[in-house]
Every structure is written in structure tokens, then in C-alpha cells.
Amino acid sequence: MRTSITKQNEKTLARLALACLLVLSSPAYAQLPDKRSLLVSLPDRQLALLENGQPKKVYPVAVGKESTPSPTGSFHIFVRVTNPTYYHQGYVIAPGPENPLGTRWMGLGYKGYGIHGTNAPNSIGKAASHGCIRMAKKDLEELFGMVKVGDEVEIRGKRDEQMTAIFGAKTDSTVAGSAAMAAGMAGGN
Asked: Tell me, what's the pLDDT at 57?
């Protein structure tokens, strides 16, 4: 009797191993999900959505102004909020067209900084925020649908090879703007 139970267990284990092998070799398990991350270039005032390290889409953004610069470093999407309420220095602004956060907020888990919309669409492409990354409504809502809590966000203040590959070489207007800023700083303005 003991021998038949052992043989039956062996058959059951063999069937279970075969079933696991079939499930794990199916296309749904064989393909790893795409790893998404965001790369923000402060000098280019652009944000790239990366999949497995490759750019999928690039968006224009507004970044922190000189007096309230955007932080640099590695962050992650900490929270995602649709129709956020704005809180700043005692002011509270409910969701709606006057809300400076726009229709979406992706918090970076660092001192209230995040990626959000804006009620000042002309600020996109400029150094104009209190340090957050602002996006146009359409772009933000598209990006919001593609990222999730935990996705990495890298904010860089200096160009490197990866940024040049993703965002391209500096344009004449970027170089001219940088030269004007340097001249203004040298003059004490």
C-alpha cells in the first residue's frame, strides 16, 4: 500500500510540475512588464517618459524659478490624485479652473513637490513654478494614465550624454537664454 501512495504522489507532483511549466512559459508570463520611469531635464524644460530606459514620449514642462528652484535627484511617484485641492501658506483652493495644480497631481514624496497641471498654461517651457514640474492639461492627463505609484522620477539640473540623446542638442534659444542668464548673474541682477 505504501508503494502505491508514493507512486500516486509522484504522478501528482509530475502533473503539478508540468502545469507550472506550461503556465510559466505562456506569453503572459514570459514577457516582463515594461519598466516605466520619468526623466526631467531642468535646463531643457522637458520631461521624458521612459520604458525600459528608452524614450517613449517627451513633454514640455515648466520648472522652478530661480528663487524657488526644482529639486534635483532621484524620487518616485508617491501619490496620484485626480482633481486635487491646493494648500499653500494658509490658502486653500478647491478643484476647478482657478486651482494652480490643474486636474492631476503626482506627488514625489519630497517636501510637497510634484508633477501637476497649471492654471497658467503660458508658463509651460519657462522657469516659473515654486519648484514643482508643471505640465499642460492634455499632456498631464495622458502621462497620468501611463504612470503608477512607485515609478521612478529623476530630475536633473545638468545635461549629460543621456539627456542629449533623449532631448537633443541645445538649441540656439537655450544657449542664448543661458548666456543671458549668466550675463545677468555676473552683473548682480
From this structure: 97
